[in-house]
Design a protein that fits this description.
Protein name: Vacuolar protein sorting-associated protein
Subunit structure: Component of the endosomal sorting complex required for transport II (ESCRT-II).
Function: Component of the endosomal sorting complex required for transport II (ESCRT-II), which is required for multivesicular body (MVB) formation and sorting of endosomal cargo proteins into MVBs.
Largest sheet: 3 strands, antiparallel
Number of strands: 6
Family: Belongs to the SNF8 family.
Keywords: Protein transport, Transport
Oligomer: single chain
Strand order of the largest sheet: 1-3-2
Radius of gyration: 28 Å
CATH class of the largest domain: Mainly Alpha
CATH superfamily of the largest domain: Winged helix-like DNA-binding domain superfamily/Winged helix DNA-binding domain
Number of helices: 10
Length: about 250
């Protein structure tokens, strides 16, 4: 028979476990301290990098995107405060604030055409027209960052992905799966017909008409009855290049 360990043996085992636990805690603390030190060093280097390349960050979109990636890796958000160190150093907070205001203006001016749903690509095109006199180019990445800050204000702005397109929604319209599928289908030529949706999605005519009627009521679709074959076409400005906002260069 195996002998059970005595009280002394149990105490030694408990002491050994305590030692291992303390050792583990010390190693973990040491690693944490080292990581904090490395992080502080990297942040300091990041600040120095920002001072040195201030103009490039503001003027060069690709450089600006890379700078944001560097910041994200160390938990720094240059847009967190318009009065913070980064805003004062780079003026980058002002850049995105102005861009956010322009995004709101474009969305409001195009709402009667697209129902408050505009492709990110088209939005950027309008913004570039508006900012032609500025040397600060605007990218889709810049628009996404500016819109993320608008969301914090509870402004109703949101970026949604349908098919291969990113769309910016500026009205509180709730799109269900049927609406999204029709919008994705329309990306090919900018419009759909009831018959096409029935054929491509294997839906009943009632389901198709119900979804299209909702999109019409929300202002997201327009009907074209002027075709020679008499078939109604439902056009979607948010995914079509046919409809462009002529006032974007004003």
């Amino acid at each position: 028979m195996r002998r059970r360990p005595g009280i002394g043996g149990l105490q030694k085992a408990a002491a050994a476990r305590d030692q291992y636990r303390l050792l583990g805690e010390n190693v973990a603390k040491l690693r944490t301290d080292m990581m904090k030190e490395q992080l502080a060093t990297f942040k300091s280097q990041l600040e120095e990098f920002a001072r040195k390349h201030k103009n490039d960050i503001r003027k060069n979109p690709a450089f600006r995107a890379q700078f944001h990636e560097m910041c994200a890796k160390v938990g720094v958000d240059p847009l967190a405060s318009n009065k913070g160190f980064w805003a004062e150093l780079l003026g980058i907070g002002d850049f995105y604030y102005e861009l956010g205001v322009q995004i709101i203006e474009v969305c409001m001016l195009t709402r009667s055409l697209n129902g408050g749903l505009i492709s990110l690509q088209e939005l950027c095109s309008h913004l570039r027209q508006r900012r032609k006199k500025d040397r600060e180019a605007v990218t889709e990445d810049d628009c996404l960052r500016a819109i993320s800050k608008l969301k914090v204000l509870g402004s109703g702005f949101e970026v949604i992905t349908i098919g291969k397109k990113k769309l910016v929604r500026s009205v509180p319209t709730e799109l269900n799966k049927d609406h999204n599928q029709i919008l994705e289908l329309a990306q090919g030529q900018g419009f759909v017909t009831v018959e096409e949706v029935q054929r491509r999605l294997s839906w009943s005519s009632g389901r198709v008409i119900d979804a299209l009627d909702t999109l019409l009521e929300e202002g997201l679709a327009m009907i074209d009855n002027g075709n020679k074959d008499g078939i109604c076409q439902y056009w979607f400005p948010c995914v079509s290049s046919v409809y462009s906002f002529v006032g974007s260069d004003t």
